[in-house]
Amino acid sequence: MTSITDAPQNPLPFKSARSRKIPGGRVIRWLRANLFASVTSSVISVLLIALLAKAFVSLVQWGYWNAIWSVPGDQTGACRSIRGLGACWAVLPEKYRFILFGTYPFSEQWRPALVCLTFIALFYVSSRRSWWRKELVAVWAAALALIGVLMWGGIAGLTYVSQDRWGGLPVTLILATFGLAFGFPLGIVVALGRRSKLPAIRSLCVLYVELIRGVPLISLLFMASVMFPLFMPDGVNIDKLLRAQIAFVLYAGAYLAEVIRGGLQAVPRGQHDAADALGLSYWKKNGLIILPQAIRHVIPPLVNTFIAFFKDTSLVLIIGIFDLLTTAKTSIIDPAWQPFSVEVYIFVGLIYFVFCFAMSRYSRRLEAQAHPN
Amino acid sequence: MTTSTPELRRRRQLRFSLNRQQIIGLLWQVAVVGIAVAIVAFLWSNALHNLSVRRISTGFAFLGREAGMPIADTWLAYSPRDPYARAFIVGIINTLRVAVIGIVLATVIGTLIGIARLSSNWLLSRLAAVYVELLRDIPLLLQLLFWYVLMQGLPAARAAWKPIEGVFLSNRGLILPSVPIAEANLWVIAAVVAGLIALYVLRRQLMARQMADGKVRRLWPYALALVVGFPALVSFGLGASWTVTMPELRGFNFVGGLTLAPEYFALLIALVTYTSAFVAEIVRSGIQAVPRGQWDAANALGLRRSFVLQRIVLPQALRVIIPPMTSQYLNLTKNSSLAVAVGYQDVVSIANTTLNQTGQAIEAIALIMMVFLTISLGISLFMNWYNARIALVER
Questions:
Q1: What range(s) does the ABC transmembrane type-1 domain occupy (chain B) (predicted)?
Q2: Chain B window 168-227: which residues touch A at a Cβ cutoff of 8 Å?
Q3: Alpha-helical runs (H) found in chain B
Q4: Which burial class, exposed, middle or buried, applies to B342 when counting CB atoms under 10 A from its CB (0-12, 13-18, 19+)?
Q5: Which residue in A239, A304, B131, B347 could disulfide with B91, CB within 3.0 to 4.6 Å?
Q6: pLDDT of chain A, 373 residues: tens digit per residue
Q7: 288-327 in chain A: CB under 8 A from chain B
């Protein structure tokens, strides 16, 4: 897990002072200062411009000029004839509903669409600093309940849709959001346990964190999909999605615990002493004084952990759960469309990118607020 | 040491008289450990019951049985008739093959991109930033599938791309010229390694003597003798052959040369590009952590820019860089397990096949965990040792 301090762009301080005195218009001056400041710099600029121009031209040729945007039915002959020369975007209007919602009943797909919007609204609301209050917990509970109702149905006149028909973007968002929603409190408890003075509790927490972080996530998912049923008593059969969800909660808990531990270490000793002097209990001391400060210290790395976690949910492809990446991969099994997987991966990559990029921008803004200089 | 008896007794009394807080702590620990033990015992008894119902034996005896699993890309002689144990070893070697080469390449490329991001050339720094943002914000598995699809979309062997003489890129993978490795060649490689170690020791001694009397001593004659002369002598003495075999297209396939299978190549590209984006950010933040005054002072001395970077800035930046870099190396190693998605048989993929063939889930997963915990521990130990070596010595 990386916690990269992303300071505003600050070029190395060997920009020549001469650049300020160079004559010419603003554009010329800017060019000379930023692209042609020295011989080496000029050579690099020229090479890069040539390379970029070439890449840009071939990209536009492939993605726009030579591209095919729609074909009748499954007649992909036209697409095949331009393979390698142009993109076949026709695959997207054909497959986008499957990619986004999987095998969810076609006529009911407004429900998962609404679920995605609910998630986005929930993320938006949670990102407002002025909204970080106790009521937010209630908002979360309500939103998650609404999501459950919409996905499952069965009440309020909605037809019941069983879990094995869920797929696509809602599954990715569910895995990520529930994983974090339950992994976060778990992480807090484990982080506190790791800093506890009680040796048995401390070693249990260390064991948990190190075991989970020491192995690849895939092995945890394999464990959830094959070993979990072995560990359950007879007759208890937990759904595959739920098993993966449990694995994700355990995984998120271990990584978040380490980030939060970093925050706990940054809270000055005096805060503990002051709380003890007031005679606060362990839980009051941590809940009211230590944790709020600790978490505030580590918000940017927390958001970075969220991003990593969001991307990692795509690994459920390996155990056959229909998340966004799996639906994308499945949508091009169809022989007619098989050669056009690059187009589909670009589309799905864009969706992941939008979510992750939004989060990373957000983390950068928070950091700028925390360290105004 | 002599301790009087009354004092000893008093100490013992102290030990057994707990205050209220200690009792609460003790109770908490008993409760938490008790719950943990109860959960583990419950799961364990269920597992034993389920295993006996499904007639799956426990234990590692299956490792001696015939694996019957084909492995396409191996460095070690292997046939499907070999036992599971050998298949696992092949898998571990395959994992290390990706991880070690991946770590080296990701470090080199990531460092270059990180430095490029700080360049005063606007275009270069912007491009590096785009590279970082794009690769960081797309799941690795998606990138891996993307590269794999691209590899499969390459022309067939007969119409392979030939960027340089002797290098072919086709849907059979990347084919490079190679030197056939005989025993004599291995000895020469060993001689180079021995020469490098000797040079390192010598350099330290020369530096120490330079520190003592201030006289500058030349290193390059020794370097030449140890790293070039000595291996050349060994090569000559043993009669090692260094003729390069160029791969050739014969019929439908390539003959000679070194083949990087498409699965391996796709996995390597994906891991290297993805990790290098994170490495670039670490390098950048490390360089930025070096105070500006260091640059100014070096500039004032009229030192060359590359010299300043190498001798003044990077050594200081390394202290900031090493700890997060360690976790990136660990991530890359763990991420190499995604090999299973494209059918490259690393240790996880082989364990997964074993698990499906024998049903011995617990043992297979335990093996995966053991392998990765060992590798992780190895990387951490090495990096911590390195970190301690370069850490700031406060006097």
A1: 92-383
A2: none
A3: 5-16, 20-53, 84-117, 122-136, 140-152, 183-213, 220-223, 230-238, 262-288, 292-300, 305-307, 314-335, 347-358, 361-390
A4: buried
A5: B347
A6: 344 444 444 445 444 444 455 566 888 888 888 888 788 888 888 899 999 999 999 888 888 888 778 777 777 777 777 777 778 888 888 888 888 998 888 888 899 999 999 999 999 888 887 877 788 888 888 998 899 888 888 887 788 888 888 889 999 999 999 999 899 999 999 999 988 888 889 999 999 998 898 889 998 998 888 888 888 887 777 788 899 999 999 999 999 999 999 889 888 889 989 998 998 888 889 888 898 888 888 888 888 899 999 999 999 998 888 999 999 999 888 888 888 888 899 999 999 999 999 998 888 888 787 666 5
A7: 307, 311-312, 314-315, 317-318, 325
Cβ burial of B133 (10 Å; 0-12, 13-18, 19+) is middle
One-letter-per-residue 3-state SS of A148-192: HHHHHCCCCCCCCCCHHHCCEHHHHHHHHHHHHHHHHHHHHHHHH
Q: Write phi, then psi, for A81 (nearest 5 degrees).
A: -70, -20
Task: Say if CB B279 and CB B111 are below 8 A apart.
Answer: yes
Q: What is the DSSP pairing of strand B168-170 with strand B258-260?
A: unpaired
State how far the Cα of A172 lies from the Cα of A291, in Å rounded to an integer. Answer: 29
A218 contacts: CB under 8 Å, gap ≥ 6: A315, A318, B337, B338, B340, B348
Q: Is B363 on the interface with A (CB under 8 A)?
A: no
Cα-based distances in Å from B132 to B109, B182, B284: 12, 42, 11
The encoded tokens of residue A33 equal: 């200062």
B334 interfacial to chain A (CB closer than 8 Å)? yes
Under 8 Å CB-to-CB from A328, ≥6 apart: which residues?
Answer: A99, A344, A345, A347, A348
Contacts of B334 in chain A (CB under 8 A): 215-217
Say if the Cβ atoms of B141 and A2 lie within 8 Å: no
d(CA B333, CA B338): 10
